[in-house]
Specification:
- The chain has one helix at 2-20, and strands at residues 22-23, 29-30, 39-54, 61-62, 68-78, 83-95, 101-117, 120-135, 138-154, 159-172, 186-200.
- The strands form two sheets. Strands 3-5-6-7-8-9-10-11 form an eight-stranded antiparallel beta barrel.
- The protein is mainly beta.
- Strand 6 and strand 7 (101-117) form a beta hairpin.
- The N and C termini lie far apart (49 Å).
Length: 201
């Protein structure tokens, strides 16, 4: 029994580095190090969770929207081995109780700080930009802020896969001179859970 335990322990110790790192073809283990000019392209697809709105005379209120879908395409460039800056173009949809569709299409600049635990990476990200929304014939352009993080597994030195959890903050601001009036201003709060495929180049 003791010999079996020692054998299993030895095999585990030998196999952990093999799973954690790539072989470069010469029998040497390789851990990628990113530097200025390295880039990534990422596609994200998943679920969109409307949370609540606040603002206006009635205070916080339920979003009154169904679960929906979200997706985005992200390009990022490394400034160092742990810091990236990039651009994100995304979209989401959800439905009202009477089946009207709310579309939101944010375009944002984003920056990330990456915690490296190879073969895993944990980027913490903040993005800001503009959100283009449409509900029936109502169209609007509003500020957009997105914050959250990802958990990525490096399948190889080029490909990584994982998941993302992000909070969206979308202020829909109306001026007092607008037809709706200032009381129509609302601050939207949403969550996005998506899966990622990321390519390093």
């Amino acid at each position: 029994m003791r010999k079996a335990f020692l054998l299993i322990t030895l095999i585990t110790i030998l196999l952990v580095p093999a799973f954690a790192q790539d072989d470069d073809g010469n029998g040497e283990l390789f851990v990628p190090v990113y530097s200025l000019g390295d880039q990534t392209l990422r596609i994200n697809l998943g679920t969109f969770f409307p949370l609540f709105f606040f603002g206006g005379p009635d205070g916080p209120a339920p979003a009154n929207l169904t679960l929906g879908g979200a997706g985005s395409l992200v390009w990022e460039s490394y400034l160092s081995s742990t810091i990236t800056i990039g651009v994100e173009v995304g979209g989401s949809f959800s439905f009202t109780p009477n089946f009207r569709t709310l579309f939101m299409l944010p375009i944002a600049v984003r920056g990330s700080y990456i915690f490296n635990l190879y073969p895993f990476e944990i980027p913490v990200t903040l993005a800001a930009g503009m959100n283009f929304s449409r509900l029936s014939d109502i169209q609007k352009i509003d500020p957009f802020v997105k914050a959250g993080g990802s958990f990525l597994w490096n399948y190889s030195s080029q490909w990584a896969f994982g998941g993302n959890l992000f909070y969206w903050f979308v202020p829909q601001i109306y001026l007092a001179t607008s037809p709706a009036g200032a009381d129509a201003t609302r601050y939207g709060n949403f969550l996005e859970f998506t899966l990622s495929a990321l390519y390093h180049f």
